[in-house]
Design brief:
The complex is a heterodimer of chains A (about 200) and B (about 230).
Chain A lengths: L7 H28 L7 H21 L5 H15 L6 H17 L8 H27 L3 H16 L6 H34 L1
Helix pairs in contact in A: 1-2, 1-3, 2-3, 2-4, 2-5, 2-7, 3-4, 4-5, 5-7, 6-7
Chain B lengths: L3 H4 L2 H17 L5 H15 L2 H6 L2 H17 L5 E3 L2 E3 L1 H26 L3 H10 L3 H30 L6 H29 L17 H18 L1
Antiparallel strand pairs in B: 1-2
Classes of the chains: A mainly alpha (about 200), B mainly alpha (about 230).
């Protein structure tokens, strides 16, 4: 990852996509976090924000096709979130950085990125939403993996209308749901990137 | 008395933040309040950021909401009145959750609040990431432009009957916002190039990342951290 190879245009585009993702986090993100209190189930808040944010960052990767571009967009978004009037919120900051790192991992290969690489990047990034809860519950609330797992199964059984005995199936469905949203975000980003490129050409 | 903040550089604040994150994750519940006391004390010694947070309504609303909700949603129920449930274990868990949350919020405010935007940009320069500092500056000033772009795109689509076909127009909306954002970006590129801005240029270092006082502070932090964990 060589940031010295970035041109002025690359950095400005990083700023544009970082600002877009940041603006989304500060408006829609703040609104959803007010709607869903901190210790209530934040499944949808995280999923909606991750899905849209990841799509924006991946469109950014389409216009700055260099290693480190998505990570830079994530860092700019994080700093905007930190400096925003809404103040410091640890959960979204950790999530944005983790998603940016995971998207960057998907673009590590030296072959030119394809639609499927975008789908992989989206899947990895939104898939983080599943593990985010375990990390944040440990960090913020001091809860162990077992407690988070049990609460997730309990909430999942209510949301999906499945018996609590099908714990593995519930966890699997919850994870696959995130994978599907991530894949759709990646697919959409590739398509949106091409459409925008055609528009500004 | 010279404040501690005047003697420390940005490296110390970032180390303090990482140190707090690590200890919040590793310390058992019973010792979390010690960490909170240390964070408040450091905030007090290094400036006034900690008092601004402690005086804010939003901070107390967040902390008290955790405390208020925890007996109803956490732990095994001890008392039940129909749909309503109360748990003493839940209240205890909520108390420790509130202490952790307060520690983290204060640590973030003390460390990142100590850095202004200009200091952050200088920090990126110091870390040889001048382009990232430049991007941060551009992104911070893009807010009003993006708001105008979003408003113009929204009203144009609405006046052309965009709400009748929401999916197609959501796509058009996104394309318009991103394309106009990039067009504005091109103007910024022209302005930066006209001023011969070079993101890879090496600048003379005017501010330090870590000095002698910072090194001593970090060693002290490590010692206190080990002491708390043992």
């Amino acid at each position: 990852m060589k940031f010295s190879t970035f041109t002025v245009r690359d950095w400005v585009y990083v700023a544009v996509f970082g600002a877009l993702w940041g603006a989304l986090e500060m408006t829609l993100g703040a609104y959803l976090h007010v709607l869903f209190p901190p210790i209530a189930n934040t499944f949808f808040t995280g999923l909606i924000m991750a899905g849209i944010g990841v799509a924006i960052a991946l469109v950014g990767r389409y216009f700055v096709p260099r290693p480190g571009a998505v990570l830079s967009i994530g860092i700019i978004t994080t700093l905007l979130k930190v400096l925003s009037l809404g103040g410091m919120k640890i959960g979204p900051v950790v999530a944005i950085l983790a998603e940016a790192i995971l998207m960057e991992l998907a673009f590590l290969s030296k072959t030119p990125p394809t639609r499927w690489r975008y789908v992989l990047a989206g899947t990895l990034a939104v898939g983080w939403n599943f593990f985010h809860k375990f990390v944040m519950m440990r960090l913020l609330y001091g809860k162990g993996i077992t407690e988070v797992y049990l609460k997730m199964v309990k909430d999942g059984s209510q949301a999906l209308g499945l018996d609590i005995g099908y714990a593995v199936a519930i966890i699997g469905v919850l994870f696959l749901f995130r994978v599907a949203v991530g894949a759709a975000a990646g697919w959409l980003a590739w398509r949106l990137g091409r459409l925008v490129a055609r528009r500004i050409a | 008395m010279t404040s501690l903040g005047a003697q420390l550089n940005s490296g110390s604040y970032l180390c303090f933040l990482l140190w707090t994150l690590l200890l919040v994750a590793l310390l058992p519940d019973g010792r979390q309040w010690l960490l909170l006391v240390i964070v408040v004390a450091f905030g007090w010694l290094s400036g006034r950021a900690v008092f601004q947070v402690l005086a804010s309504r939003r901070f107390w609303l967040f902390i008290l909401s955790i405390l208020a909700m925890s007996p109803f949603v956490l732990g095994e129920a001890d008392i039940r009145w129909g749909m309503l449930r109360l748990s003493w274990t839940g209240l205890e868990t909520g108390l420790w959750m509130a202490v952790r949350a307060a520690t983290l919020m204060l640590a973030f405010s003390v460390s990142l609040g100590a850095l202004s935007v200009a200091q952050m940009v200088r920090l990126f320069d110091r870390l040889r990431l001048r382009g990232l500092g430049f991007a941060l500056g551009v992104a911070l000033n893009l807010g009003p432009v993006l708001r105008d772009v979003v408003e113009a795109a929204y009203h144009t689509l609405r006046l052309r009957g965009g709400f009748r076909r929401p999916a197609r127009n959501a796509r058009l909306f996104l394309i318009t916002v991103i394309a106009n954002g990039l067009r504005y970006g091109d103007d910024v590129v022209k302005a930066a190039l006209a001023r011969a801005f070079d993101p890879a240029a090496k600048l003379p270092q005017t501010s330090r990342f870590l000095g002698q006082a910072d090194k001593a502070f970090i060693v002290g932090l490590a010692a206190v951290g080990v002491g708390l964990l043992l």
